[in-house]
Structure formats: C-alpha cells, structure tokens
Design brief:
The complex is a heterodimer. By secondary structure, chain A is α+β, with helices and mostly antiparallel strands. Helices cover 22% and strands 28% of the residues of chain A. By secondary structure, chain B is of the alpha+beta class. The chains are: A alpha+beta, B alpha+beta. At the A-B interface, helix 21 of A face helix 1 of B.
Chain lengths: 1000, 100
C-alpha cells in the first residue's frame, strides 16, 4: 500500500523501519516515529470516525492531546481500549484499530439518520424528551447509551501488567518543548534532582513542528545538543511518553508513563504503563498552548484540521495531508501551515480574517506570491464526507456580516487557526486563578503560586525567544528555590515564530443565519454547535457551568480542549457580558484519560489487601476446611468430614464442645499489652466497670463505649503483674481499640505513664472447651495446677503446655469449662498438634467460626458489630450490671444519663424462638408486631444472629427489638419478602441458664 | 495530597496520617454536672472556618504519635505543626482569630 501523502524527504520518521497496521480491517503502512494519525494521513485516510450525536463523518482534527474526533478502538480482546486518540497512539508493527460509534461499518453507518433528525436533537434534547414519566428513564437510557456509545470497554481481564512508582525531586518540569528543555537545563546544571516529562514519544514540542533557528542553526540541532546534555547530567531523569495527568496539593504530581504501549502485543515483556507519584519541591509548568478551531458552517468535514496540526504533519511526519489547501486564520501562526504546505508542493490559499494582515510569516507568504484573501471569511464548506471546497466571502468591516458574492475554492484540505489557548489545565488544578488577556484573547495564569514556576506559551508568552528565555529563568529560579546555586545561562539567539496582532471572530459570518444550511461546530466530540449554545441562553441559562451541563459542551473525553474558550466566548457575546465575567469551568484531573489498570497496578487479587493467616491455617487447609474472611484474617469456618454438609459439620462441632472437647484457633483475637503505673487508670477510663481491685493473675470482662455511650468493643483483660495487663479485643476491633486508647493517652492524658503495644501477632491462642478440657490439659502440663481452688474461672496461670511456654487463661466464650492457651505464635501449630494427638481418646473436635458463633449464641454472649451496630448502649443489651455506678467518670458515661439513652422503648437485645423449631430466621430479617398484606408495616427491629442449635434442639435467634424486654412472651412476626415467620420473644439466653457448665 | 511535616519523622505523605479534627478540645471534667447542651457541645460542635484551622493529626502508619497542625482550609498551606499540649504559635493563633 502506498503512502500517497508521504513527502519524499524530511520529518522525524525512520524510513528504514516500515510498520504495517490494520485500520477498519484494511492494511496500511507507516514508519517508525509515526502516530496512528500521521500514518493514516500519509495514506490519505482522513475519515476516521462518526460523531457522537449526529453520526457525522469526522476526520483527524489535531495532532496531540486535544484531538476530539479521531477516537479509535485500539486492539482486541482483553487488550482493547476505547477512545484512544489516534494522534497520541505511537505506531507499531501489527497495530489494530477501528472506528467507533458506527454500525455496521464506518462508511454505511445507520446512526447517520440522526443527522437528518437533527432538528429534533437540540441542546438539552435528552432532558426535554426523556423527563416523564420518571420510571421510563431506565428504558430510555439503555437506548440512548447504545445509540451514542463511544467505544467498548474490554470484556476480558486485562492481560497487561502495570506498575507504580514514587519519587521525590527538587524540580519537576512538565513539558519538553523549548521552554521546558531550557528549564530542565538550567535546573539540571545546578545539580538539582530534576525530572523532565513530556507526553510525546519524542521530546522537543514545537521545535519538532515548526521551522526555526537557534544560534544560527536549525532548532533541532539545539534540541539534540540540549537533550544530550540533559542525559549526561546524573541527577536528571527524562521521561518521554509520560503525561502529567494531575496536579495535587503540595506539589504532588501524578504521571502516567507509557512504557510498553508502543511496543504492541505483550509490550515486549515490560509493564504496559507505570503510574508515578512525584513529590516535587518545585514545579516548572511548560505545558504550551492548544490551537483553537474556527467556528464556521460545516467546519467538521474530514480534511478540515487545525492549522498547527497541518504544519506538524508536514514538518514532523513528512505528510502533506492534501493536494490543494485553504488556510483560514485570524493570526500569523496559521501561515506556518500555509508555508509548510507550499514547501511540500501543495497549492495554498490563505483566508485571513484580518483586513490588514501583519506578521513575519505573513510577510514571507506574501513575498512568495501566495494567494491571500484579507478580510475574508469561510461562509460554508462543501463535500459529502471529505471536504471538496469552501465558499469564501469578503466580510463587513465589523466582521458581523458578509458583502458581495461568494467564491468557491476547490480544495481537499482546510486548516483553521482561531488563536491559541494556553494549556493551563495543570496550573488550574493546582489552585491557580486565571486572568483573561484581551490582546491574546485567552485565559492566562493570573497569580504565581509558591513552589511553582511557569514558562513559555502556558503563560501566554508566545514565540520561541520567549519560550527559551522564560524557560531558562524558570529553571534557574526553581533550582534556587530548592536550595541550589543556578548560574545565569546565556539565552541563545533565535529566529522563528514570533507573535503578531490577531483578530478574533468567535463565529465566522456567512450569508445565511446561524444554524441554517449547515452546522457551526464548537465542541466536535459532543456535537455542540454555536446555535445550541445560543439556544441554551435563550432558554434562560446564564452560568457557564449550567450551559456546559445543559449543552454537554466540553464534557467529552477531551474535556473541551479545543472547544471551551470558543464556547465561552460565544456565550459571553450572546448574554452580552465580558468573557472574564462569564468565567471558566473547573479544570479537574486527569488531563487526558488514564487507564484504570494503572491505578490498580499490582494491587490485584491476593495483593489487593494483606492476608493474615493464623498458625493453624495450613493444617486446616490440608484437612479441607473452608475459610471465612474476618477483616484481613482468614479464619477457619468449619471442618467438614468427607461428604459432610456444612450444617452437619457445624452441628457435630457444636455438640462435641458440650459433650467432650472442642478446640478452636482463636489467635485472631486482638491483644494489647498494657504496661505502666497508670495502666489501671486507663482501664478505668475505657471500660464501664471498675478495675482497681483486680488481683494479679485474675481476668475481667469489660465493655468499651464511645463518648456517645454506645458499645464499640468488648473483651477480657487480665492483670499479668503489678503494672502489667493483657487486653483482648474483638478480632476486627483490635486496631480501632489500640488507636482509641492511644488518642486518649496522647491527647488528653499525656501525663499518664502507660505504654500500649499490639501483641496480636505475637501470641497464638488455642481455645479448648468442654467437659473434658481440664483432663486433657492436665496430661500436657506439669507446672500448672488446674484445680478450681488454685485456678478458678476468670484467672490466668503461666507455665508450660506440651513443653511450650504458655499463658493459660481460664475464660469461656462457650459457657463450657474452657481454657485459652496463649503461646508464642511460632509454637501455635505445635501446640495445636499436641492437643489434637493427646485429645484423640476424647474425640477432640476442631471447630470453626460458625460453631463458635452458635455456641456463644446459645449462651447469649454478644458479638460487638453483629449484635450491636453503634446505636446500642449497655442497657440495651441488658448489661447494666457491668456499668459502674461508683466510678466518677468513664468514657461515654455522661451520654448514658441523657434522656434518650434512658428511654424504655429503646431497642433491646432479646431472644426469638420460631414456632417451627427447625426453621431459622434469616439474619437481618425485620420484625413486625402487626402483619399487613404488603409494606409499609411498623418495624420493631431486626434479627442480629440466628442459628440452628443442636444443643437446644431448635433454632435460636437474637434480635434488637423496640421495647423488647417488655415484650418477652409476646408473639411477633419476621416479615420476609416470600413468607412470614411467627416468633416468640424470650430472654436472650437459650442454654445452661444457671451458668454452671463453666465449672465443668 | 498534603505533605505533612510530622514533628517526629519529618515530611511524609498525607496517606500515612489520620486527621482527628479540631484541636484543643479538652474533655470536660465533672461531666456529671454538665447540662445535656454543654455535653452535646463538647461532643459535636466544631469550628468550620474558611481560613486557618487548628487540628490534630496522628502519624498512623509512622510513629503513631499525635500532634497539632495549623492549616489553611483555603490553600491547604500548613502554617505550623506543634506538639500535643503546646499552645498554637502566636503567629498562627493571631491568624486563626482573624479567620482569613
């Protein structure tokens, strides 16, 4: 396949490396150094997509991040990516791309019928049409989404690898055009740690696109020398293909580096992209400017490009995108495209909006005899698809209308230049305020922020000379501010583009009223026209933010890079307010879209969150036990025997613990080591009960409240020594409890001498429960006396179990005679195995969290966070007995005296028994007193815990019920979507009501 | 993301810290004698200035220590950090009163 628009020489492409690629199923060839867009244009492919709303034929408009039209679906399968800007896709061998938003094919798109219906698709169409009835929106939305799709997300997992990196630097320079390179040089020479980033594959920015000379030689010579010097500086890091997508507080910059994309396929074995978080002491923004299109009738045909893009394609990619060109411009930069095309042998006519054009490039064009139509407008364009001609007309002096008759110029390429908008996105994200510059007709940075420097076009300083001088100055200032000595650098003499006076006409006049006979597009991606904006104003919209949302201008994936200022100016003209008074919309990250995979990077699957395993994890895995996630912990759920259902296994485990011995790994219990002479004061503050008289070696249960008086954790704390306590917390509450006590200690009672250490990971805890528990442990210890007299309930002894140094706690979460043996974590499995072996004769039965829950529910022991939810007081739980009346104060005490916490009709924890003993109520079920055929019904509360209990021989449930204690004996109903269950309210205890089993 | 100068560890990313809200709120003594309104004021009423805010932070994933910090809620500039129990630096205290 020939590249008919490729020039025989020039450009930055590597002609020795031809690359084949597929676009819409057809094979083309480009060269290394091409983007997909430049390679398509080299093959004279302009028509690359259909527009969003009207499905109009669209071509490549720009040459970089600003591109609104040439969005393609890149690659296939798991690697497919929607909305890739062809202008930013580096070409590689085998690249596959296709057009979006067209069906069945680009050429024969059925949605193009929308174009014929455009009279019924005005601004706010969706809002006006699909408002009522509201329930229909769901139906409409599905239809609209299918009709207006912008590419398809991948349906398979992303096969690529992404990385993240963090870096600190002295000076981060964003943009490697002349200003950015000069800044990096100035800063780098001082020895500062510099990072220079640019979104493009090749550094140089405008130096690659425009002809210019520096120090008497082609500008690219200076570029090569400067990049060579930068690469030789050891503290300078240069990152091409890296977009600074977000500027966050305190000079935190988000970068996305495309490492593998341009290699194609599996990225040559390297990660596809890397997400950088850079914290820079100083930032230099040299982000340049984006050219604005002109708004004229049917300005969206394929073959109509930004003038700067035409210039870039000629000079950088050696592509003359047409044979006969017309350039429409209100300024001197448009002549750059005209001169580039003329140099490539394309005949060019310049339509200059200015009545008396000036400027160095204009002078050159005139001297070369180029046809220049001053004071003219493009009234309309021709073509069924690719542009075939334009009608030009002289304008009235004020530019509001046309005079005389039109002249048709045949052409296949149109360049337009409506002036330049500084790329202030990152500056604005950082909190910078914009100022409208009348002469430039552009928003420029209005204030300088600390730690930030601006250089070149982003400041509105156009021209190569300004870029270099400001770049060197900004780089030096940044290095100085970061603590380095920067020597003054000589600014080279330049010869190249320099600014000249421009004329702004926000909508070009035509012989027909606006919107008649053609469409004047402002936002190409979202199909918003000048007429739409004016309609929005007629309908009463004034705020720029409202007009944006109503018309959707600037809301595409390009975020209005080419359209925002034009839209704003048209709005300002229509409402009769100055542009600065209308204001801008907000710039938010990202500058260009960032793939979600990069944010996830390696934090996927098992690496998403740390996994905490107990010492018996491997053992349980081997016997085929399933696990339950409890926070980050994996806890064994139950231990099924071969062929056993969960229900059967849990019943067996629950019975064993009450008939012989159950054994459970409770290592996940939160454990906090508390030491210091003021430890007991702390305990008195954080628990509701009193701790002064707890003897060494004795344990006590406690409830913790927040300052609102609500239960937020519970556990058993044991006095290990004179000033030494061992606190246990719920599994999931451990970090919260530690942080809670630390906050009080450090912020409120810094004078307390007490230290807290998390020892959850240091101790393995194996619980042994059941009538034979004491017998079993006595066989494994010589130095711990287990008789009641010396080792009563709620006490602790230190010694050895199975030869392992241990702290043995006689506490019980089952209501059985029970010991919790704590050993150093590395001995946890050894202890478990010793107990299992010695316990064989008692048919020792390992049990998991499910059986543990049933056992504790049989006894009515609460689980904080399951039976409580942050609105539950000790009184609600029927646990007033644990709230000290004597302590002068404790955390949450005052809140328990509020009228609301003393109400009788608060929700109380009660038990529920179903009429049918084998039916368990689903947890979370709502309880009602009076059943109605359908909701709403008065809800009295909900079921917090519900199980089948083999020891009670029936289902049991705990519930929080309004005024529950007064309802004991009442019949209520669990109202479920498919059925109702009749229940009787009981005390929240179901087994061993006398509490004698704990003594064995 | 803020860069927070921990008085014990030096500058670190905000993601290492937890914010505990307004600083210098002492827990009332003799809470039994407090009216419900006064107790509620202690629990819930907080300043929400446009300007300098004195707040307390904890270096959660670092030294785990609490400290005070003066921050502009407009620019996010951190004007001072100082230890628990210390009064705010005079300069900052003046700014807070002015509510810039």
């Amino acid at each position: 396949m020939t590249q008919k628009n490729r020039l025989p020489e020039g450009g930055r492409i590597d002609r020795t490396r031809p690359l084949g690629f597929l676009f819409n199923g057809r094979r083309y060839t480009g060269f290394a150094g091409d983007t997909l867009a430049s390679a398509l244009l080299a093959n004279d492919v302009h028509f690359v997509g259909r527009s969003f709303k009207y499905h109009r034929k669209r071509g490549i408009l720009g040459s970089g991040a600003e591109e609104p039209n040439a969005l393609v679906q890149l690659e296939l399968g798991g690697r497919t990516e929607p909305n890739a800007r062809a202008t930013q896709v580096d070409l590689y061998e085998g690249l596959i791309a296709s057009s979006q938003n067209c069906w069945p094919t680009l050429e024969a798109d059925l949605g193009a019928a929308n174009s014929l219906l455009s009279r019924i698709y005005p601004a706010g169409f969706y809002y006006k049409t699909f408002m009522w009835p509201p329930s229909f929106w769901m139906t409409y939305e599905r239809f609209i989404r299918r009709a207006a799709g912008l590419g398809r997300p991948p349906r398979e997992p992303d096969p690529d690898r992404y990385e993240k990196a963090w870096r600190h630097c002295d000076v981060l320079v964003v943009g490697a055009g002349p200003a950015g390179i000069a800044a990096a040089l100035a800063a780098g020479r001082s020895g500062a740690r510099v990072i220079l980033v640019d979104e493009q594959a090749e550094l140089g920015g405008s130096l690659l696109s425009r002809k210019g000379a520096i120090d008497g030689a082609p500008a690219t010579h200076w570029l090569d020398t400067a990049l060579g010097e930068l690469r030789s500086l050891p503290e300078v890091m240069v990152l091409p293909r890296t977009t600074a997508y977000g500027y966050y507080d305190h000079n935190m910059i988000g970068l996305i580096e495309r490492i593998g994309d341009h290699r194609g396929g599996s990225n040559g074995g390297v990660p596809r992209q890397r997400l950088w978080h850079v914290r820079a002491k100083q930032v230099v923004l040299a982000t340049g400017a984006i050219e604005r299109p002109l708004v004229f009738s049917d300005n969206d045909r394929p073959g109509i490009l930004l003038a700067s893009a035409i210039e870039t394609y000629v000079n950088r990619y050696a592509v003359a995108a047409g044979r006969r060109g017309v350039i429409v411009t209100g300024n001197d930069t448009g002549y750059g495209a005209a001169l580039a095309l003329a140099g490539a042998g394309t005949a060019v006519t310049v339509v200059d909006l200015r009545t008396e054009p000036t400027g160095p490039q204009h002078e050159t064009a005139r001297a070369r005899g180029m046809e220049i139509l001053a004071g003219h407008t493009v009234a309309r364009t021709f073509g069924n698809g690719r542009v075939t001609g334009v009608e030009v007309m002289p304008m009235t002096a004020d530019g509001e209308g046309v005079v005389g008759s039109g002249r048709r110029i045949e052409c296949d390429l149109v360049g337009m230049s409506g002036g330049w908008s500084p790329t202030v996105h990152l500056y604005s994200q950082s909190g910078g305020k914009l100022r409208y510059d009348e002469a430039l007709a552009a928003f420029v940075p209005g204030n300088f922020r600390s730690g930030q420097h601006l250089a070149g076009a982003v400041r509105g300083s156009f021209g190569l000379g300004a870029a270099l001088s400001e770049g060197f100055a900004a780089g030096a200032a940044a290095a100085e501010a970061a603590g380095f000595r920067a020597a003054a650098a000589p600014v080279p003499a330049v010869e190249g583009y320099e600014p000249a006076p421009q004329r702004m006409l926000w909508v070009l006049p035509s012989s027909k009223p606006l919107g008649h006979g053609g469409k004047n597009f402002v936002d190409f991606q979202n199909d918003v026209t000048a007429a739409d904006l004016k309609l929005a104003v007629r309908e009463g919209y004034r705020s720029v933010e409202h007009v944006k949302r109503y018309t959707t201008t600037g809301m595409g994936t390009d975020q209005g890079k080419t359209s925002n200022i034009n839209a704003l100016a048209i709005l300002s003209e229509t409402v009769g307010a100055a542009i600065p008074a209308v204001g801008t919309t907000t710039f938010r990250p990202p500058y260009t879209p960032v793939t979600v995979g990069a944010f996830a990077s390696r934090d996927l699957g098992d690496l998403l969150d740390p996994i905490r395993r107990t010492p018996t994890h491997g053992w349980a895995e081997k016997v085929g036990a399933p696990f339950e996630n409890v926070g980050q912990w994996k806890r064994t759920w139950y231990f099924p025997k071969a062929g056993e259902t969960m229900h059967a296994a849990v019943n067996r485990e629950v019975k064993a613990a009450r008939t012989s011995i159950g054994i459970v790994d409770a290592s996940t219990l939160g454990k906090i080591d508390i030491q210091g002479p003021d430890a007991v004061k702390l305990l008195n503050w954080v628990y509701t009960n009193a701790w002064d008289n707890l003897a060494i070696g004795r344990s006590r249960y406690g409830l913790m409240l927040d300052e609102n008086g609500m239960v937020f954790d519970d556990g058993v704390t044991t006095r290990i020594g004179e000033n030494h306590y061992h606190m246990t917390t719920t599994t999931s509450g451990a970090p919260r409890v530690l942080a809670w006590m630390e906050e009080w200690l450090q912020c409120e009672w810094p004078h307390y001498r007490v230290f807290l250490t998390s020892v959850t990971e240091q101790w393995a805890t194996i619980g042994v429960a059941g009538p034979n528990a004491r017998k079993l442990i006595s066989e494994l210890t010589q130095d711990i006396a287990l008789e009641d007299e010396s080792f009563p309930f709620m006490s602790m002894k230190e010694g050895h179990v199975a030869g392992i140094p241990a702290r043995v706690f006689r506490i019980s979460f089952t209501g059985e005679l029970s010991y919790e043996i704590n050993v150093p974590t590395s001995y946890g499995l050894a202890l478990w195995q010793a107990l299992m072996t010695a316990g064989e004769k008692y048919e020792i039965t390992p049990y998991g969290t499910e059986a543990m829950h049933v056992l504790r529910a049989e006894k009515g022991y609460i689980i904080v966070g399951q039976d409580t939810d942050g609105t539950v007081t000790p009184g609600d739980l029927g646990m007033d007995w644990i709230v000290s009346k004597k302590k002068p104060d404790f955390l949450g005490k005052r809140s328990l005296a509020r009228a609301d916490t003393r109400r009788d009709d608060r929700k109380h924890l009660v038990g529920l028994l179903t009429q049918n003993p084998s039916e368990a109520i689903p947890e979370g079920a709502q309880i009602v007193g009076e059943l109605k055929p359908r909701p709403p019904m008065k809800m009295l509360g909900h079921v917090t815990s519900s199980y089948y209990s083999p020891n009670v021989g029936r289902s049991i449930a705990l519930a929080l019920i309004e005024g529950g204690r007064a309802r004991i004996g009442q019949e209520l109903h669990a109202a479920l979507p498919d059925r109702n269950i009749r229940v009787t309210v009981t005390e929240p205890r179901f087994f061993d009501l006398e509490g004698t089993r704990v003594n064995g | 993301m803020l860069l927070i100068p921990c008085p014990f560890c030096g500058p670190r990313d905000e993601s290492e810290f937890g914010c505990g809200g307004e600083a210098h709120i002492a827990r009332p003594t003799d809470t039994d004698r407090l009216s419900d309104a006064d107790w509620a004021a202690y629990l819930f009423m907080r300043k929400n200035p446009k300007g300098v805010h004195l707040e307390r932070w904890v270096h959660r994933l670092g030294c785990r220590r609490w400290f005070n910090l003066a921050r502009s809620t407009v620019s996010h500039e951190i004007l001072a950090v100082y230890k628990m129990g210390d009064p705010p630096p005079a300069s900052v205290a003046g700014q807070e009163a002015r509510r810039t």
